[in-house]
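FYI - complex with magnesium ion, inputs then prediction.
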Amino acid sequence: MRELLGGKGANLAEMANLGLPVPPGFTIPTSVCNYFYDHAKSYPKDLKAQVEKALAYVGKLTGKTFGDPNNPLLVSVRSGARASMPGMMDTVLNLGLNDETVEALAALSGDKRFAYDSYRRFITMYSDVVIGFEHHHFEEILDTYKDSKGHVLDTDLTAEDWVEIVDQYKDAVRKETGEDFPQDPHAQLWGAIGAVFGSWMNARAVTYRQLHAIPESWGTAVNVQAMVFGNMGETSATGVAFTRNPSTGAKQLYGEFLINAQGEDVVAGIRTPQEITEAARKDSGSDKPSMEAAMPDAFKELTRIYTLLEKHYRDMQDLEFTVEQGKLWMLQTRSGKRTAKAALRIAVDLANEGLISRKDAVLRVDPASLDQLLHPTIDPAAKRDVIATGLPASPGAASGEIVFSSDEAAKLQADGRKVILVRVETSPEDIHGMHAAEGILTTRGGMTSHAAVVARGMGKPCVSGAGTIRVDYGRGLMTAGGRSFKAGDVITIDGGVGQVLAGRMPMLEPELADEFGTLMGWADEVRKLKVRANADTPEDARVAIKFGGEGIGLCRTEHMFFEETRIRTVREMILADDEQKRRAALAKLLPMQRADFVELFEIMQGLPVTIRLLDPPLHEFLPHTQAEIEEVARAMETDPRKLADRARDLSEFNPMLGFRGCRLAIVYPEIAEMQARAIFEAAIVVNKRTGKAVVPEVMVPLVATKAEFDMIKARIDATAQSVMRDQGAQIKYEVGTMIELPRAALMAGEIAKTAEFFSFGTNDLTQTTYGISRDDAGSFLGAYVSRGILEIDPFISLDRDGVGELVKIGVERGRKTRSGLKVGICGEHGGDPASVTFCHEIGLNYVSCSPYRVPIARLAAAQAALGKKAEGQA
Ligand code: ADP
Ligand code: MG
Ligand code: MG
């Protein structure tokens, strides 16, 4: 009954129903919180009477009476929302104590020191959370008092000391508020209940809810529970424990406890807590006894209970308990938070132990968290000196010397140095520098800027859009927050969180434990969607295979052109002013492209490979400097001035909407012909060599009309015929198109008449649907998200409503014309779990994502097949 009772209340009730030792208590449900806010902060009429009745019953169970000056029931008041929520009111313990009942507690326990220790704790907590008189005031009083006694410790203070301190506390409250500290236990109780409900709307809680998408309508519950005391001397204690190790997942009780302590003392760091198990004590080398040694009976009881709770909840639990004079009491249980590594191990172990099914295990691991496992991370124990923050564009962490140019990066790397490439932004010309660098930092650009996309594809850490950093290329300097760093200085970037740090950081290398393979295997058994990788290089393809990719969904041929040795020939081709010169340059490129494809096909061993024809704006290949122009002119034996003119003609204002995609092949069909020839010739070579038939899928980008597609397809088909004739061999191939313009999605029915497959390029489709250029979106998208106009950056997670609708239309209309049309998606979204869920729902055949995200997509696809909804969906 989590919704009504909150997480804490529901689990306390559940533990009580299981017959576990839980101090008796009751829960005021979340519905009262909603009533409270709907009715000018007042309570339902009958609440008071019900609380009285419940209190009386708790009194009966404990043999005490709330407010009784001789035999008082003391309680804790604890908030508890549906979802665990830091930011809510802190717990008040020992409520019901006053000048009279504290004496009764002393008499009944025979321990005056304990009674006044409890009272001073109560005054501190109540004042802090109900009256708003913060606890540091009390700490100051206590410190001054201890100093006056010669710097003694809390444990050295006697009953008389605490009596004196309690007096000073009450004086301080009176001075601050003008009133005595409340003595009436009933007034105390309603004060605390009101504070819990009031804290639902405090700033911290509101922010937390916003960040975690927790609806305000959920409300919080209030738990009132009889006190048990961990501060009753050496046979009492309080502690916290995880039923398994939350960072490694190992099956071992993991936690800490403190003798003669109460509440949050264990986690507050006032005293150093002790280990629970003897094994852990030995590991830590601590000379203080473990709970196992100091309180063997309570430890045995804890072991019995935690085993039972794990079986009952079928998950690793996070426990809070107290031992009162040797007797163990359970105060909380909930599913424990854990690292990705632990999540994986625990899910697999629980399934192997028979506590959950394999399907459950698949559903237990958050796909996005796998990122943590596939890349090096900064040692969490290391201290971070953060220089600036940007976007967490590509996960993993790396340290290296700052370099400001790609050429410099390549040069230093060749000398065996490790570098971080720092750029305002990157362009396709930086590929070699990005390859050479350990990580990439840009000051502009968003999550799908060039740097971000390419870095993710390479599996390299990247922080993009770190806007507070100023880069001065001329002086080889970057400044941030008043500090400056020059080329050669060492920095570290953490692409998982978007931080830039000074200096080198200690790293933890990723290790793929056996559980990883096991869980992925279970995921593969249930998923329907195929998972391919976007791979441009043999290296990418190998990584894709290693991570279980089932083909290449997108091979971007242009990346093969940016290599230093080839870019000059590419420029010759572009700048040629007639077809004959262009064909001459293309003839030089043909063997290079063919060799690329041969290598790729061989690695992919007959798995499908989709190759996209040249797509980027020609603009991106143009020479920029005079030296570059002269170099090309020499190779082409033409006048550099003529060449400069031609380059100027070709440069564009808005290249993303310019001369690119299939438009290149329409105007210069010989480019498409060369690429098609390279593909088919390579397929024949590999077919002969490996005996595994390659079926290349040739993909035409940025199509808006069927006529465009048909014209290019005719060229490709003719090339295939001619290659087969020349080589005397047969090959199978398919020609399809990307759907990445709204018009193409709408006209999908027409286009599918001739297109043999579709692949949704959702990066461009998002750009063109929103009319937002992703390279320029950095300056305002953040504000859109923080102001709630967009729930999430649509370049990160596919916009189901708008862009998604176009995808749906495209699939429906396409398949209506050509039943069984194979449809995939190859944008960045292919590796985003929520988008993968969407792709499953609308019946795509596959998603294609960067090689390092393949495991994430496999797991997300499996969860979608098991019916898990994407976040934010009903
Ligand atoms: P949080 O939500 O911050 O964990 P809790 O309500 O769990 O706050 O209270 C914090 C701690 O206070 C508990 O872990 C437990 O040690 C102590 N505590 C709460 N209620 C009682 C009680 N009835 N008897 C003894 N200790 C209690
Ligand atoms: Mg707790
Ligand atoms: Mg595109």
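The first strand starts at residue 25 and ends at 28. The chain has a mean pLDDT of 92.
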